[in-house]
Design brief:
By secondary structure, the protein is of the alpha/beta class. The chain has three helices and five strands; from the N terminus they run αβββββαα.
């Protein structure tokens, strides 16, 4: 679920946030020159990008107005619609890994402590606060 700003989706995200739900969203796969993606760019939404098997940012990763974390988004397998292993690639495969780890960590600050810093020291526009769930990649 990635695209331009949409008032209906924005209302749904704000309503969910108002009930205490944390939203985790992929930044999309339209490349770094694309306009900011939503819902990842809305305040309070956890924006996630993807990295490959060497922890390099995906070339096709889009951007948001802010970036919180990176997670595996390539060089891995997931079940296809028939239950068979299929290669996957994209930021949409990274976002659920962050969501799962956020649930396990219990808080955003705990998840931030878990992040492995990549790129420039500290938070940056390529990896956010760092890599989450780097060992979660299913290499088959």
């Amino acid at each position: 679920l990635v695209g331009p700003p949409n008032p209906v989706l924005n209302g749904a995200v704000r309503a969910a946030q108002g009930k205490g739900v944390t939203i985790v969203a992929a930044v999309g796969n339209d490349g770094p020159a694309a306009p900011p993606a939503y819902p990842a760019s809305w305040p309070g939404v956890i924006a996630v990008t993807g990295v490959d098997g060497r922890d390099r940012a995906l070339l096709e990763a889009g951007k948001s107005l802010h970036l919180d974390f990176a997670a595996p988004g390539a060089d891995m397998f997931a079940a296809d619609m028939k239950g068979n292993a299929a290669r996957v690639r994209g930021t949409s495969f990274a976002a659920p890994l962050v969501a799962a780890r956020l649930h396990g960590a219990g808080s955003l600050s705990a998840l931030s402590r878990e992040a492995k810093d990549l790129g420039k020291k500290g938070p940056d526009a390529i990896y956010g606060r760092g890599l989450i769930c780097g060992s979660c990649r299913n290499n088959r």
